[in-house]
Amino acid sequence: MDQKETAQTAEAAGRAETAGPDAEGEHARPGAFTNRAMNTFSPADEEKQRGVRRMKLTATGLLLFVAVVYVLAKWASHQGAGPWAGYVAAAAEAGMVGALADWFAVTALFRHPLGLRIPHTAIIPTKKDQLGVSLGEFVGENFLSEAVVRQRLRAVGIGSRLGAWLAVPEHADRVTAELSAALRGALTVLRDSDVQAVVGEAITRRADAQEIAPGMGKMLEKVVADGGHKRAVDLVVTRAHDWLVLHSDTVMDAVHGGAPGWTPRFVDRKVGERVYKELLRFITEMRDMPAHPARGALDRFLSDFASDLQSDTDTRARAERLKSEILGRGEVQDLIASAWTAVRSMIVSAAEDERSELRLRVRSSLLALGARMSLDPKMQGKVDGWLESAAVYLVTTYRKEITSLITDTVASWDAEHTTKKIEANIGRDLQFIRINGTVVGSLAGLLIYTLTQALSA
């Protein structure tokens, strides 16, 4: 690249930077950043390009040197300098041929030699898209195949390495902290109204879809059989007795209020006192006598009710109607929705507290998992198998998308700038081909001339 080309490249880069990303639609194209990198020269690229120019001068200088040697050797041969001039001329002639052939080959990679549109020249700019397709196919066949992925992952031994890493307390603390941060972030992003609606709908739909009467009947039957209801009965009759003791006037006033208007007041009072005393006696006996007939009657009632919940059609239908009425009440729906708020607050608080039970249990589980993975070959095999299957699924399912990323990206590059970019990065090494061609050609020419002279002698 001469000074004019360098100036044009710098000017194009300046225009691209001034226009900004929107000028070329970089926000709309996935490969925009790559395009910009391939279409502009960085200071490092400029330095590499200067190195290419120096090597070009060296290779060209060597070509001119052997050409001068050839001319001098031929002149000396005509002047009768002796046999040695023929050997030198043959070596120099073959060196020129090798240098020119390799110059043509190297130049044909990037441009048309001498501007002549010779077939199969300017390979990179004209075959850029085909090279991108070939590169994508090469990557897909040799790097994204199932056998290669499984072999590489199996050789790495991720299961044992991950286990050994997790078994270190500092690493477990780090993973716990990262998981806590991720959990807090996820809960922060979620809107309470959306989650509450989903939870409420899920609970209501599940409750509507499942009949509750048989399950309640089985549970009640087991409670009665185990005597678990007796403590509830004890609590109820004890509270009833205490209430009656404290509210005797209320009970008697209730009796007075229900008496006919034509009865004498002292009769109403006597009746009220009698009712109160009998009611208090009944509750007291029921409280103090575990074998009280009323308790037995209650046991039989609960047993019959449990059986009806499981087998009686009318009882089950009434239970379903009651369930629907309860679920349909606004208070119940508000309670279901508010449950998420409480759970969310509890989880966020636990995730923020380093000494919370949640984080301590997660840390302990990670340490135990790491210790087991580092020592248990079966566990390591399972983890490796999961990872291999996941990786194979990704590469086999999205192989086309991955390889198309390569082909589409290469296709979006500007041919001229891509050629200059590639030449800047590998051109210096390619110039050694010209130098080697000159040297090897000279040696080959000298050897051929020597063998020819020997055979003709």
TrEMBL record:
Instruction: Write out the entry's keywords from A to Z.
Output: Membrane, Transmembrane, Transmembrane helix
Instruction: Note down the stretches annotated as region Disordered.
Output: 1-49
Keyword Glycoprotein among record annotations: no
Q: Which stretches does UniProt call biased (Low complexity)?
A: 1-19
Task: Kindly give the PANTHER family that the UniProt entry links to this protein.
Answer: INNER MEMBRANE PROTEIN, INNER MEMBRANE PROTEIN-RELATED
Give the CC-aspect GO terms: plasma membrane
UniProt source species? Streptomyces fungicidicus
Record-given protein name: DUF445 domain-containing protein
Chain segments annotated as transmembrane: 57-73, 85-110
